[in-house]
Write a structure and sequence with these properties.
10 helices, about 425 residues, single chain, 4-stranded antiparallel beta sheet, alpha+beta, Aminopeptidase, elongated, Alpha-Beta Plaits, 2 domains, 6-stranded mixed beta sheet
Protein backbone atom coordinates (compact mmCIF):
# COMPACT_ATOMS: atom_id res chain seq x y z
CA UNK A 1 0.00 0.00 0.00
CA UNK A 2 1.32 3.43 -0.97
CA UNK A 3 2.10 5.64 2.02
CA UNK A 4 -0.63 8.20 1.36
CA UNK A 5 0.07 9.83 4.74
CA UNK A 6 3.01 11.60 3.08
CA UNK A 7 0.51 13.59 1.03
CA UNK A 8 -0.77 15.11 4.27
CA UNK A 9 2.40 16.53 5.76
CA UNK A 10 2.41 20.09 4.41
CA UNK A 11 -1.30 20.85 4.35
CA UNK A 12 -2.03 19.26 7.75
CA UNK A 13 0.48 21.56 9.49
CA UNK A 14 -1.06 24.72 8.03
CA UNK A 15 -4.62 23.41 8.38
CA UNK A 16 -4.35 22.38 12.05
CA UNK A 17 -3.01 25.74 13.15
CA UNK A 18 -6.05 27.51 11.69
CA UNK A 19 -8.82 25.19 12.92
CA UNK A 20 -9.13 26.42 16.49
CA UNK A 21 -12.80 27.43 16.09
CA UNK A 22 -13.92 23.82 15.79
CA UNK A 23 -15.66 21.92 18.56
CA UNK A 24 -13.73 19.07 20.16
CA UNK A 25 -15.92 16.49 18.43
CA UNK A 26 -15.25 18.17 15.09
CA UNK A 27 -11.53 18.05 15.71
CA UNK A 28 -11.92 14.34 16.44
CA UNK A 29 -13.71 13.90 13.12
CA UNK A 30 -10.78 15.48 11.32
CA UNK A 31 -8.37 13.14 13.09
CA UNK A 32 -10.48 10.21 11.95
CA UNK A 33 -10.32 11.40 8.34
CA UNK A 34 -6.53 11.57 8.61
CA UNK A 35 -6.40 8.13 10.19
CA UNK A 36 -8.55 6.58 7.45
CA UNK A 37 -7.06 8.48 4.52
CA UNK A 38 -4.72 5.71 3.32
CA UNK A 39 -7.55 3.17 3.18
CA UNK A 40 -9.83 5.67 1.45
CA UNK A 41 -7.18 6.26 -1.21
CA UNK A 42 -6.97 2.52 -1.77
CA UNK A 43 -10.75 2.45 -2.13
CA UNK A 44 -10.54 5.26 -4.67
CA UNK A 45 -7.81 3.45 -6.59
CA UNK A 46 -9.77 0.20 -6.65
CA UNK A 47 -12.95 1.89 -7.85
CA UNK A 48 -11.19 3.92 -10.55
CA UNK A 49 -9.56 0.76 -11.89
CA UNK A 50 -12.98 -0.82 -12.46
CA UNK A 51 -14.35 0.34 -15.79
CA UNK A 52 -17.88 1.56 -15.11
CA UNK A 53 -18.94 3.25 -18.31
CA UNK A 54 -22.71 3.76 -18.25
CA UNK A 55 -23.34 0.91 -20.70
CA UNK A 56 -20.95 -1.47 -18.91
CA UNK A 57 -23.63 -2.90 -16.64
CA UNK A 58 -21.32 -5.41 -14.98
CA UNK A 59 -18.71 -2.73 -14.26
CA UNK A 60 -21.22 -0.33 -12.74
CA UNK A 61 -22.53 -3.10 -10.50
CA UNK A 62 -18.98 -4.01 -9.47
CA UNK A 63 -18.32 -0.46 -8.27
CA UNK A 64 -21.64 -0.54 -6.45
CA UNK A 65 -20.66 -3.77 -4.70
CA UNK A 66 -17.31 -2.27 -3.70
CA UNK A 67 -18.99 0.72 -2.07
CA UNK A 68 -21.78 -1.41 -0.58
CA UNK A 69 -19.30 -3.44 1.44
CA UNK A 70 -17.89 -0.26 2.98
CA UNK A 71 -21.28 1.23 3.80
CA UNK A 72 -22.69 -1.97 5.23
CA UNK A 73 -19.87 -1.98 7.80
CA UNK A 74 -21.09 1.45 8.92
CA UNK A 75 -24.59 0.28 9.78
CA UNK A 76 -26.32 1.27 6.55
CA UNK A 77 -29.08 -0.87 5.08
CA UNK A 78 -28.12 -1.64 1.47
CA UNK A 79 -30.51 -1.87 -1.48
CA UNK A 80 -29.94 -2.26 -5.20
CA UNK A 81 -32.61 -0.66 -7.38
CA UNK A 82 -32.73 -2.80 -10.52
CA UNK A 83 -33.82 -1.49 -13.90
CA UNK A 84 -35.83 -3.49 -16.48
CA UNK A 85 -33.56 -5.30 -18.97
CA UNK A 86 -35.06 -3.22 -21.80
CA UNK A 87 -33.55 -0.04 -20.34
CA UNK A 88 -30.02 -1.48 -20.49
CA UNK A 89 -28.80 0.20 -17.32
CA UNK A 90 -27.26 -1.31 -14.18
CA UNK A 91 -29.51 0.28 -11.57
CA UNK A 92 -28.76 2.31 -8.45
CA UNK A 93 -27.11 1.79 -5.06
CA UNK A 94 -29.09 3.01 -2.05
CA UNK A 95 -27.79 2.95 1.54
CA UNK A 96 -29.97 4.16 4.40
CA UNK A 97 -29.92 4.91 8.10
CA UNK A 98 -33.05 6.12 9.87
CA UNK A 99 -33.44 8.21 13.00
CA UNK A 100 -35.02 11.44 14.19
CA UNK A 101 -32.07 13.73 14.93
CA UNK A 102 -31.09 16.73 12.82
CA UNK A 103 -31.74 17.26 9.14
CA UNK A 104 -32.92 14.33 7.06
CA UNK A 105 -30.17 14.17 4.46
CA UNK A 106 -29.72 12.59 1.06
CA UNK A 107 -26.12 12.37 -0.20
CA UNK A 108 -25.76 11.95 -3.96
CA UNK A 109 -23.10 10.17 -5.98
CA UNK A 110 -22.98 8.16 -9.18
CA UNK A 111 -21.26 4.91 -10.05
CA UNK A 112 -20.92 5.31 -13.81
CA UNK A 113 -18.48 7.29 -15.94
CA UNK A 114 -18.40 8.38 -19.58
CA UNK A 115 -15.52 5.98 -20.28
CA UNK A 116 -16.72 2.75 -21.89
CA UNK A 117 -14.62 -0.45 -22.13
CA UNK A 118 -13.83 0.14 -25.82
CA UNK A 119 -12.12 3.45 -25.02
CA UNK A 120 -8.40 3.69 -24.19
CA UNK A 121 -7.76 2.68 -20.58
CA UNK A 122 -6.48 5.24 -18.08
CA UNK A 123 -5.79 3.47 -14.77
CA UNK A 124 -5.24 5.19 -11.42
CA UNK A 125 -1.81 6.81 -11.70
CA UNK A 126 -0.02 9.27 -9.42
CA UNK A 127 1.50 11.92 -11.69
CA UNK A 128 3.08 14.10 -9.00
CA UNK A 129 2.53 15.25 -5.42
CA UNK A 130 -0.64 17.14 -6.34
CA UNK A 131 -2.14 15.25 -9.29
CA UNK A 132 -3.61 11.79 -9.79
CA UNK A 133 -5.20 10.65 -13.03
CA UNK A 134 -7.72 7.91 -13.76
CA UNK A 135 -11.03 7.38 -15.52
CA UNK A 136 -13.83 8.90 -13.46
CA UNK A 137 -11.50 9.94 -10.63
CA UNK A 138 -12.94 13.45 -10.61
CA UNK A 139 -16.38 12.73 -12.09
CA UNK A 140 -17.21 11.35 -9.75
CA UNK A 141 -15.53 8.50 -7.90
CA UNK A 142 -13.59 11.04 -5.84
CA UNK A 143 -16.91 12.46 -4.60
CA UNK A 144 -18.24 8.97 -3.87
CA UNK A 145 -15.21 8.27 -1.68
CA UNK A 146 -15.66 11.58 0.16
CA UNK A 147 -19.18 10.44 1.12
CA UNK A 148 -17.91 7.09 2.40
CA UNK A 149 -15.00 8.70 4.26
CA UNK A 150 -17.35 11.14 6.01
CA UNK A 151 -19.70 8.34 7.05
CA UNK A 152 -16.81 6.20 8.32
CA UNK A 153 -15.44 9.01 10.48
CA UNK A 154 -18.87 9.79 11.93
CA UNK A 155 -19.63 6.11 12.53
CA UNK A 156 -16.49 5.52 14.56
CA UNK A 157 -17.45 8.40 16.85
CA UNK A 158 -21.07 7.15 17.10
CA UNK A 159 -22.25 10.32 15.36
CA UNK A 160 -24.46 8.48 12.88
CA UNK A 161 -26.66 7.18 15.70
CA UNK A 162 -30.30 8.30 15.38
CA UNK A 163 -29.65 10.19 12.12
CA UNK A 164 -31.60 9.90 8.87
CA UNK A 165 -29.17 9.68 5.98
CA UNK A 166 -29.77 8.19 2.55
CA UNK A 167 -26.83 7.69 0.22
CA UNK A 168 -28.05 7.41 -3.35
CA UNK A 169 -25.56 6.55 -6.09
CA UNK A 170 -27.14 6.29 -9.52
CA UNK A 171 -25.77 3.94 -12.15
CA UNK A 172 -26.56 6.05 -15.20
CA UNK A 173 -25.99 9.71 -14.37
CA UNK A 174 -23.85 10.25 -17.45
CA UNK A 175 -26.56 8.90 -19.79
CA UNK A 176 -29.84 8.39 -17.99
CA UNK A 177 -31.98 5.53 -19.23
CA UNK A 178 -35.45 6.07 -20.64
CA UNK A 179 -38.13 6.49 -19.58
CA UNK A 180 -36.97 8.82 -16.83
CA UNK A 181 -40.15 8.06 -14.91
CA UNK A 182 -38.62 4.63 -14.25
CA UNK A 183 -34.91 5.42 -14.05
CA UNK A 184 -35.47 8.39 -11.73
CA UNK A 185 -38.81 7.46 -10.15
CA UNK A 186 -37.48 5.85 -6.96
CA UNK A 187 -34.81 8.53 -6.69
CA UNK A 188 -37.38 11.33 -6.75
CA UNK A 189 -39.77 9.65 -4.31
CA UNK A 190 -37.01 9.11 -1.75
CA UNK A 191 -35.80 12.69 -2.07
CA UNK A 192 -39.25 13.94 -1.10
CA UNK A 193 -38.72 12.38 2.34
CA UNK A 194 -35.62 14.49 3.08
CA UNK A 195 -34.91 18.06 4.17
CA UNK A 196 -31.53 18.43 2.48
CA UNK A 197 -29.91 16.95 -0.63
CA UNK A 198 -26.13 17.27 -1.00
CA UNK A 199 -24.46 16.43 -4.30
CA UNK A 200 -20.83 15.35 -4.44
CA UNK A 201 -20.13 16.13 -8.08
CA UNK A 202 -16.71 17.65 -8.68
CA UNK A 203 -15.84 20.90 -6.95
CA UNK A 204 -15.69 23.75 -9.47
CA UNK A 205 -13.37 25.67 -7.14
CA UNK A 206 -12.00 25.27 -3.64
CA UNK A 207 -14.08 28.16 -2.31
CA UNK A 208 -17.18 27.91 -4.48
CA UNK A 209 -20.30 25.76 -4.22
CA UNK A 210 -23.26 25.18 -6.51
CA UNK A 211 -26.51 26.62 -5.17
CA UNK A 212 -28.02 26.36 -8.66
CA UNK A 213 -27.56 24.26 -11.79
CA UNK A 214 -29.04 24.81 -15.19
CA UNK A 215 -31.57 22.42 -16.63
CA UNK A 216 -31.34 20.88 -20.08
CA UNK A 217 -33.94 20.16 -22.73
CA UNK A 218 -33.91 19.61 -26.48
CA UNK A 219 -35.65 20.93 -29.55
CA UNK A 220 -36.28 19.59 -33.04
CA UNK A 221 -36.89 21.92 -35.96
CA UNK A 222 -38.45 20.62 -39.18
CA UNK A 223 -38.52 22.89 -42.22
CA UNK A 224 -40.16 22.18 -45.58
CA UNK A 225 -39.79 24.04 -48.86
CA UNK A 226 -40.65 23.69 -52.54
CA UNK A 227 -38.19 21.56 -54.46
CA UNK A 228 -37.20 23.13 -57.75
CA UNK A 229 -34.38 24.34 -59.94
CA UNK A 230 -31.96 26.63 -58.17
CA UNK A 231 -32.38 29.31 -60.83
CA UNK A 232 -35.79 30.07 -59.31
CA UNK A 233 -34.64 30.54 -55.72
CA UNK A 234 -35.80 33.79 -54.05
CA UNK A 235 -38.58 34.06 -56.65
CA UNK A 236 -41.70 32.03 -57.27
CA UNK A 237 -39.93 28.85 -56.16
CA UNK A 238 -39.42 30.33 -52.71
CA UNK A 239 -36.36 30.23 -50.50
CA UNK A 240 -36.09 26.53 -49.81
CA UNK A 241 -35.80 24.69 -46.53
CA UNK A 242 -32.10 25.33 -45.88
CA UNK A 243 -32.39 29.12 -46.12
CA UNK A 244 -35.44 29.09 -43.86
CA UNK A 245 -33.74 26.86 -41.29
CA UNK A 246 -30.68 29.13 -41.34
CA UNK A 247 -32.91 32.19 -40.84
CA UNK A 248 -34.66 30.58 -37.88
CA UNK A 249 -31.49 29.42 -36.13
CA UNK A 250 -29.79 32.78 -36.64
CA UNK A 251 -32.89 34.57 -35.34
CA UNK A 252 -32.72 32.41 -32.21
CA UNK A 253 -29.17 33.69 -31.75
CA UNK A 254 -30.03 37.34 -32.41
CA UNK A 255 -33.06 37.30 -30.10
CA UNK A 256 -31.91 35.23 -27.14
CA UNK A 257 -28.13 34.87 -27.02
CA UNK A 258 -27.56 37.75 -24.59
CA UNK A 259 -29.90 36.44 -21.89
CA UNK A 260 -27.92 35.41 -18.81
CA UNK A 261 -27.69 31.66 -18.14
CA UNK A 262 -29.68 30.80 -21.28
CA UNK A 263 -27.91 28.85 -24.02
CA UNK A 264 -29.11 26.88 -27.02
CA UNK A 265 -26.97 24.99 -29.46
CA UNK A 266 -27.89 23.47 -32.85
CA UNK A 267 -25.92 20.24 -32.71
CA UNK A 268 -27.22 18.59 -35.91
CA UNK A 269 -28.22 20.51 -39.07
CA UNK A 270 -29.19 18.38 -42.08
CA UNK A 271 -30.67 19.62 -45.35
CA UNK A 272 -30.89 18.53 -48.98
CA UNK A 273 -33.18 16.93 -51.52
CA UNK A 274 -33.15 13.56 -49.74
CA UNK A 275 -32.92 13.80 -45.95
CA UNK A 276 -33.36 11.38 -43.05
CA UNK A 277 -32.67 11.99 -39.37
CA UNK A 278 -32.73 9.91 -36.20
CA UNK A 279 -32.25 12.33 -33.35
CA UNK A 280 -32.48 9.60 -30.70
CA UNK A 281 -29.31 8.11 -32.17
CA UNK A 282 -27.86 11.58 -32.89
CA UNK A 283 -27.31 10.88 -36.58
CA UNK A 284 -28.71 11.61 -40.02
CA UNK A 285 -28.08 11.39 -43.77
CA UNK A 286 -28.56 13.83 -46.62
CA UNK A 287 -28.00 14.05 -50.34
CA UNK A 288 -28.69 16.75 -52.89
CA UNK A 289 -27.35 18.82 -55.74
CA UNK A 290 -26.21 22.40 -55.97
CA UNK A 291 -28.87 23.12 -58.58
CA UNK A 292 -31.78 21.78 -56.51
CA UNK A 293 -33.65 23.93 -53.98
CA UNK A 294 -33.78 21.93 -50.77
CA UNK A 295 -37.26 20.69 -49.81
CA UNK A 296 -36.36 19.46 -46.33
CA UNK A 297 -34.13 20.42 -43.40
CA UNK A 298 -33.89 19.06 -39.87
CA UNK A 299 -32.15 20.76 -36.95
CA UNK A 300 -31.69 19.26 -33.50
CA UNK A 301 -30.35 21.25 -30.56
CA UNK A 302 -30.30 21.72 -26.81
CA UNK A 303 -31.69 24.46 -24.58
CA UNK A 304 -30.17 25.15 -21.16
CA UNK A 305 -31.87 27.34 -18.58
CA UNK A 306 -31.70 28.36 -14.92
CA UNK A 307 -35.41 28.45 -14.07
CA UNK A 308 -38.61 26.98 -15.48
CA UNK A 309 -39.81 30.51 -16.23
CA UNK A 310 -36.71 31.16 -18.32
CA UNK A 311 -37.25 27.90 -20.22
CA UNK A 312 -40.90 28.71 -20.96
CA UNK A 313 -40.13 32.26 -22.10
CA UNK A 314 -37.34 31.04 -24.39
CA UNK A 315 -39.56 28.40 -25.95
CA UNK A 316 -42.29 30.97 -26.60
CA UNK A 317 -39.79 33.29 -28.29
CA UNK A 318 -38.51 30.43 -30.44
CA UNK A 319 -42.04 29.43 -31.45
CA UNK A 320 -42.75 33.02 -32.52
CA UNK A 321 -39.66 33.07 -34.73
CA UNK A 322 -40.62 29.75 -36.32
CA UNK A 323 -44.16 30.94 -37.06
CA UNK A 324 -43.07 33.66 -39.53
CA UNK A 325 -41.67 31.72 -42.48
CA UNK A 326 -39.90 32.88 -45.62
CA UNK A 327 -41.96 32.60 -48.85
CA UNK A 328 -42.43 29.04 -50.05
CA UNK A 329 -41.51 27.44 -46.73
CA UNK A 330 -43.14 26.25 -43.53
CA UNK A 331 -41.59 25.15 -40.25
CA UNK A 332 -42.52 23.44 -37.01
CA UNK A 333 -40.59 23.11 -33.75
CA UNK A 334 -40.97 20.45 -31.08
CA UNK A 335 -39.55 20.70 -27.54
CA UNK A 336 -38.68 17.80 -25.28
CA UNK A 337 -38.01 18.10 -21.56
CA UNK A 338 -34.80 16.58 -20.24
CA UNK A 339 -33.33 17.42 -16.86
CA UNK A 340 -35.04 20.17 -14.84
CA UNK A 341 -33.06 23.03 -13.38
CA UNK A 342 -31.87 23.42 -9.82
CA UNK A 343 -33.03 26.98 -9.32
CA UNK A 344 -31.37 29.25 -6.73
CA UNK A 345 -33.49 29.38 -3.56
CA UNK A 346 -33.25 30.89 -0.09
CA UNK A 347 -32.96 27.38 1.34
CA UNK A 348 -29.98 26.61 -0.90
CA UNK A 349 -28.40 29.91 0.08
CA UNK A 350 -28.86 29.09 3.77
CA UNK A 351 -27.04 25.77 3.28
CA UNK A 352 -24.23 27.59 1.50
CA UNK A 353 -23.92 29.94 4.46
CA UNK A 354 -23.57 26.98 6.86
CA UNK A 355 -20.88 25.50 4.63
CA UNK A 356 -19.08 28.84 4.46
CA UNK A 357 -19.15 29.21 8.25
CA UNK A 358 -17.76 25.67 8.54
CA UNK A 359 -14.99 26.52 6.11
CA UNK A 360 -14.09 29.71 7.96
CA UNK A 361 -14.05 27.88 11.30
CA UNK A 362 -11.57 25.45 9.74
CA UNK A 363 -9.36 28.31 8.58
CA UNK A 364 -10.15 27.65 4.91
CA UNK A 365 -11.87 30.92 4.04
CA UNK A 366 -15.37 31.72 2.83
CA UNK A 367 -17.30 29.59 0.36
CA UNK A 368 -19.46 31.47 -2.13
CA UNK A 369 -22.04 30.36 -4.72
CA UNK A 370 -20.45 29.60 -8.07
CA UNK A 371 -21.62 30.59 -11.52
CA UNK A 372 -24.51 28.26 -12.48
CA UNK A 373 -23.66 28.85 -16.12
CA UNK A 374 -20.39 26.97 -15.66
CA UNK A 375 -22.10 23.66 -14.84
CA UNK A 376 -24.18 21.30 -16.89
CA UNK A 377 -27.26 19.50 -15.67
CA UNK A 378 -27.03 16.77 -13.03
CA UNK A 379 -29.04 14.27 -11.01
CA UNK A 380 -29.62 16.73 -8.19
CA UNK A 381 -31.78 18.80 -10.52
CA UNK A 382 -34.45 16.07 -10.57
CA UNK A 383 -35.06 16.57 -6.84
CA UNK A 384 -34.24 20.25 -6.32
CA UNK A 385 -37.93 21.15 -6.12
CA UNK A 386 -38.41 18.98 -3.02
CA UNK A 387 -35.53 19.89 -0.68
CA UNK A 388 -32.80 22.42 0.00
CA UNK A 389 -29.81 21.53 -2.17
CA UNK A 390 -26.09 22.06 -2.66
CA UNK A 391 -23.85 20.46 -5.25
CA UNK A 392 -20.14 20.47 -6.00
CA UNK A 393 -19.00 19.03 -2.65
CA UNK A 394 -16.82 16.43 -4.35
CA UNK A 395 -13.22 16.26 -5.49
CA UNK A 396 -11.44 19.02 -7.36
CA UNK A 397 -9.48 18.38 -10.51
CA UNK A 398 -9.39 18.96 -14.25
CA UNK A 399 -10.45 17.39 -17.50
CA UNK A 400 -13.70 15.69 -16.49
CA UNK A 401 -15.04 13.52 -19.35
CA UNK A 402 -11.71 13.75 -21.17
CA UNK A 403 -8.74 11.37 -21.46
CA UNK A 404 -6.34 12.15 -18.63
CA UNK A 405 -9.03 13.33 -16.18
CA UNK A 406 -7.30 14.35 -12.94
CA UNK A 407 -7.87 14.81 -9.21
CA UNK A 408 -6.09 17.41 -7.08
CA UNK A 409 -4.58 15.22 -4.35
CA UNK A 410 -3.53 18.19 -2.20
CA UNK A 411 -7.06 19.56 -1.98
CA UNK A 412 -8.77 16.16 -1.77
CA UNK A 413 -8.15 15.46 1.96
CA UNK A 414 -9.10 19.01 2.90
CA UNK A 415 -12.37 18.83 0.94
CA UNK A 416 -13.02 15.49 2.63
CA UNK A 417 -12.57 17.04 6.08
CA UNK A 418 -14.71 20.07 5.31
CA UNK A 419 -17.55 17.94 3.93
CA UNK A 420 -17.44 15.72 7.01
CA UNK A 421 -17.69 18.60 9.49
CA UNK A 422 -20.43 20.19 7.36
CA UNK A 423 -22.50 16.99 7.33
CA UNK A 424 -22.00 16.60 11.08
CA UNK A 425 -23.27 20.14 11.71
CA UNK A 426 -26.39 19.44 9.67
CA UNK A 427 -27.10 16.37 11.81
CA UNK A 428 -27.09 18.70 14.82
CA UNK A 429 -29.40 21.29 13.24
CA UNK A 430 -32.93 21.76 14.57
CA UNK A 431 -35.65 21.44 11.94
Amino acid sequence: MKNWTLFFILNVISFSSNAQSLQIVEQKLIKKIEEHYPSMMELLKNSVNINSGTFNVAGVKAVGQLYSKELEKLGFTIEWINMPDSIKRAGHLVATRKGNKGKKMMLLGHLDTVFEPDMPANPFTVLNDSTITGQGINDMKGGDVIIIAAMKAMHELNLLDNTTITIYMTGDEENAGEPRSITRGDFIERAKQHDVVLGFEGAAGFNTIATARRGASSWELTVEGKQGHSSGVFGAAGYGAIYEAARIVNSFRETLSKEQYLTFNPGIFIGGSEVSANFEQQRGEASGKTNIISPKTFVNGDLRFLTEEQKINARNAMRKIVSTSLPGTKATIHFQDGIPSMAPTKGNEALANILSKTSEDMGLGKVVPGNPGSRGAGDISYVAAYADCLDGLGASGKGAHAPGETLNSKEFPILMKRATVFIYRLTQAVN
